[in-house]
Amino acid sequence: MKLEYDLVIVGGGPAGLAVALEARRNTVKDILLLERDKYLGGILPQCIHNGFGLQYFKEELTGPEYAERFIAKLNDNRIDVKTETMVIKITPDKRIIAINRDDGLLHIQAKAVVLAMGCRERTREAIAIPGNRPAGIFTAGTAQRYINIEGYMPGREVVVLGSGDIGMIMARRMTLEGARVKAVLEIMPFSTGLIRNKVQCLDDFNIPLKFNHTITRIEGEKRVERVTVAQVDKNLQAIPGTEEEISCDTILLSVGLIPENELTGEMGVKLDPVTRGPIVNENRETEIEGVFACGNVLQVHDLADFVSEEGEIVGRAVGEYLKRNRKFRHQPIKIVPGDNIAYVVPQHIDFIVPGRKKIKIFMRVKNPAERVRINLLDDKDRVLGSYKKRIVTPGEMVSVYLPEVLLDDKLKNITISIKSN
Amino acid sequence: MKADVVIIGGGVIGTAIARELSRFNINIILIEKEDDVAMGTSKGNSGIIHAGYNADFRTLKGRLNIKSNPGFDKLCRDLKVRFKRIGSLVVGFNEEDLKKIRELKQNGEKNGINNLEIIRGPKLFELEPNLNPQAKYALYAPSAGIISPYKFTIALADNAVINGVKVLLETEAKDIRIKERQVCGVVTNQGLIETRVIINAAGLHADEIAKAAGDNFKINPLKGEYQLFDKQWGNLVNHILFPIPTKLSKGILVAPTVHNNLLIGPNSCRVKEKDDLATTRAGIKEVYEGAKKLIPHLPHQDLINSFAGLRADIEERDDFIIEASKKIRGFINVAGIESPGLSSAPAIAEMVSGILKEVAKEISPRLELNYKDDFVETLVEQPKFADYLDKTGKWQEIVEKDADYGEIICRCEKVSKGEMLRAIHQPVPARSLDAIKRRIRAGMGRCQGGFCSPKVLKILSEELKISPLGITKKGTGSEILKTKTKDMIKETGVKFKDEVRV
Predict the structure, then answer these.
(1) Mean pLDDT of B371-387
(2) Residue A140 · residue A254 · CB < 8 Å
(3) What is the number of domains present in chain A?
(4) Whole-prediction pTM value?
(5) Which of A173, A230, A394, B477 has the most CB atoms around its CB within 10 Å?
(6) Tell me, what's the pLDDT at A325?
(7) Which chain B residues are closer than 8 Å to A147 by Cβ?
(8) Which residues of A touch B448 (CB under 8 A)?
(9) What percentage of chain B reaches a pLDDT higher than 70?
C-alpha cells in the first residue's frame, strides 16, 4: 500500500471528516484518514438523539445522520480511509506508526498531520468517589454505547452524577427504555451542559436535577445497591447531616471530558494546562509546524457543529501550509484569558493574511453570568472591542470575532475579559 | 470428587503452595470461592518484595522474607512475571528518625542483609530528585523490589495447573469432614471433595476454616487504601519510598509499579467486616496527605484509580501461623499472612512442603510423596504488544501469523485481541472483565475500561459462548448488563404522556 501522504488525519470523527473534505477542496491531493473504530463518525453513530446540525446545516439531524452527510461526500473524493487502525506513535518529523489486522504495522510518512483523536470521559476513579467497586458504574458514553450500539440495557434504577450533556441525554434515553432515573446530581450550582438539554431531557421527563449535590459513597459488593448523596458547600465539600440514601443498581457518570492527547504529548507538542489540548495558532497549528489539531482533542466542544467548523479551518490551513503560502507576523499576538474566562482557543495569532476580515475566538467562561460584555483589551487595558451577551455559562462555548483591523504590529497581547453590567 | 491434598484459598499463598506441592506425584485440588485467583489480599497490596530489615529474624516473618528475597529474580524469570529490583529508601527528617533508621539497619544486619546503607545530604536527592527537600536521611536497601502481586499469583496458579493441580473457581469451603481425629473431606458449595490433607490458606477467612477443624485464632481485617496515578508518572520516583515505620505498619509509601504507574498508600484502619473493601473519604485524604510528606508534588489531576485491600491480622500475635493442627491429623494452617507475606510466599510454600512430609507419615493410609520427573518449572513467554512498541518489526511477524494480534482492543494499555484470546484460554482462564484486566491490563489504564469494556464483553461472550447478559465484572452477581434493549420497556410499560416533547 501507499506509505507517503501529503496529509494524514488521525481520527475519523466529525473533526477528522471535516478536515478531509475541506483539505480536498483546498487542493490537498493525497489524504489518508485513520480511524480506530470499525466505522467512521467517531462518537456520532451512538448519538441517536437529535439536535445535531442546527448551526452547520440549519436543520435538525441525529448524530448518525449528521455523520453520514460527511461520510457520503468522502466516498466521492478518493480520500484513502483505513478503519480499525490504531495509531500508536507520531514522531515530530511526521512519521506515523499504526497497526491493524490486515496490514500489521504501518509506517507512514506525512507532509502534514492533523490530530483529531477526540476525548475520553472522566471516570469514577478520576474523581475518587469513596466506596465499593461493584458492577453497575458506567461513564454515560459507555452506557450509551451499550444501549445504542450493542443493544443492551446496563441498568434499571439509575442515579446520574454530573449534568454534562451526555449524562442528561442518557437520563432521557434510559427513561424512554423503561429504566427509572431517580436523580441527576450536579456538584456545581449550575448545569455543566447545554440549557436545551436540561429542558428537553430532564424537565420534560420530571427527572429531578439536584444542584450542589454529589455522591459521597457507593455501596454494593457485586452490583451497585445504593448511593449516599449529600449537599456540598461553597468549597464543594459534603455538608454533614445532609446525607440521604438512594437505592439504585446503576450509576452513570457525566463528570467531564478529557482530550486524548497522549500521542500528542509523546511527540513533544506543548499542551495548554486548562484545555488539556495543544496550544495552537489561528490555523489550529501546534508548536510543531505542519501538525494541526481540531475537535475535542483541542478543546472539549459543546456542539458537533463547531467541531466541523474547526475541522474546516484546519482543512484550509493545511492547504496553505502545503503550498508554503503563508506570511508570519514579525511577532505573534497572544490571546490571554482574563476575568471569568477559563480558556481561549486559539492561544496566539501568527499570520498576516491578506483579505482576512476577522478571526473567530472560542472560549469558555468559568462561572455563569447574565447581561455581560465580553471585552477585548490591549496591553494597557484599553478596550479594543466589546460584545454584549445576554447569558454566558460554562456548559456552552462562547465565541467572539476579533476584527483584523485591531491587529496592529506593536500589539503583543489581547486579553479577553467578561464584564458584568 | 477425590484428592490427596485440598488447598483452600487461591491467593498468593495458596497458589505458591499449590505450585510447590505439584512437584510431588499427588492429586491436588485448589478451591477458591471467587471467580478468579488473587481476589483477596493478593490483589490489594503494595506489590513490594521487601528487603527484610523490618521483622525480627526469630520470627517467621523475618526469616521467611529473608529466605525468599534472593530467589525472586529466578522465580519471576521462570514464571515470566515482571520483577524490578529497584531498591527502597526509608526516609527520615530529623534526629529521632535517624535513630530509628539506625535501629532498622542493625536489625537488617542481624537478619543477614549486608548491603544496607544510610544515605544523607545531596546524594539523597541524586537518588530521588522529587523527594521532599526537608528530608535528611534514608536507609537504602538495594535488594527491595516491585512486582504485580496478582500477576505473580496468576502465574503461580497457571504453573501449578500445568503441573497437574486442579483449580476450582467459585468453589467455597463450607465445612470440614473429620473422622477419628483425621481429615477426610471438604464440603463445598459444589459438593464434597474427599481428601486426607487440607491446607488452610483461606486468607482473611482462615480463622473460620480453622474453627471447623477445632483450631482457635481470630483474624481481624486491617484495611489499607491506595491510589494509582497515570503511567506518565511512574518516573516521579526511582525507588520505593517509605516513611519511618510504626508498630502497626510500614507506613504510606510512594513507589512506581512494574507497569510504570505511580502507587501511593496504604493507610491502616481496623474494620469490622472481612469484605469491607470500600474506600473512604477520610482514607483517600490520609493516603494523599501521607504520600505528600515524601513527594510534595503529586499529580492529583492524573489519578486513575483508588482501591482498598485488607490485611489478615491475627489477634494477639505478631507472626504468621504456619503449622500442622495439633488437634487433628491432615490439617495444616497457613494463616495471618500479612506483610511481608507476598515477599515470603516462596519460602512459606517450601516450609509447608516440609510440614506436609511430616503430616503425610501421620495420616492413614499414609500419603506417599515422590517427586515427579516431569515437573515443569517455567511458563512460556507470551508476547504483549505494549512490550513491542520499540521493536515493531518483530510484532509484524506475530501479526502475519495471527491477525488477532493486529487488532488493538485497549487503546490506553495497547492490548491486542490475540492477547485477550490467550487470557481466556490460559491454564487459569479469565471469565470476567476484571479477570481479563488483571491478566492483560485491558481496562487498567487511564480510561478505566470506558472504551474497551464493551469490546471485551463482546469477545468474552463470543469465546465462552454465553449471552452478553451473562458476562460479569467479577463473578456471579456482578453481571454488567440487565436486559436487551426494548425488553425493559415491555416489563415496565410505556408511561409517557402525549404532551412530552420527545
Answers:
(1) 95
(2) yes
(3) 3
(4) 0.94
(5) A173
(6) 81
(7) 485
(8) 123-125
(9) 98
Which domain range does residue A263 map to? 1-120+256-326
Q: Are residues A225 and A263 in the same domain?
A: no
Q: Confirm if A219 and A226 have CB atoms less than 8 A apart.
A: yes
Both A249 and A127 in one domain: the answer is yes
Nearest to B281 among A107, A147, A216 (CB): A216
Arithmetic mean of pLDDT, B47-76: 96
Residue-wise pLDDT for B422-434, tens only, equals: 999 999 999 999 9
Of residues A164 and B76, more confidently modeled:
B76
The CA-atom distances, in angstroms, between B8 and each of B168, B185, B193, B325 are 10, 12, 12, 15
Q: State the ipTM, two decimals.
A: 0.94
Model confidence at B497: pLDDT above 60: no
State residue B249's pLDDT score. 82
**Same-domain status, A219 and A155:** yes
User: Around B271, how many Cα atoms within 13 Å sit in the side-chain half-sphere?
Assistant: 23
Find the CB nearest A156 among B279, B453, B482: B482
Q: Are A50 and A343 in contact (CB under 8 A)?
A: no
Cell 506593536, residue located: A410
Which of B436, B488, B496 should one mutate to test binding to chain A, selecting the residue with the greatest count of A CBs within 10 A?
B488
Mutate to test the interface with B, among A34, A144, A150 (most CBs of B within 10 A): A150
Q: Among all chains, which residue has been given the C-alpha cell 474547526? A: A310
CA angle A378, A379, A385 (to 5 degrees): 10
Q: Which has more pLDDT, A368 or B501?
A: A368
Same domain for A378 and A333, yes or no, is yes
Mean pLDDT confidence for A201-227: 96
Can you give the CATH number for the domain in which A391 is found?
2.60.40
Selecting from B395, B447, B493 the residue whose C-beta is nearest the C-beta of A123 gives B447
User: With contacts defined as CB-CB under 8 Å, which chain A residues touch B496?
Assistant: 176, 205
Instruction: Give the domains, in start order, of chain B with CATH numbers.
Output: 1-75+146-218+315-381 (3.50.50.60), 88-142+221-307 (3.30.9.10), 385-470 (1.10.10)
Contact B473 A134 (CB under 8 A): yes
| Closest chain A residue to the Cα of B225, Cα to Cα | A130
Cβ separation B408–A36 shorter than 8 A: yes
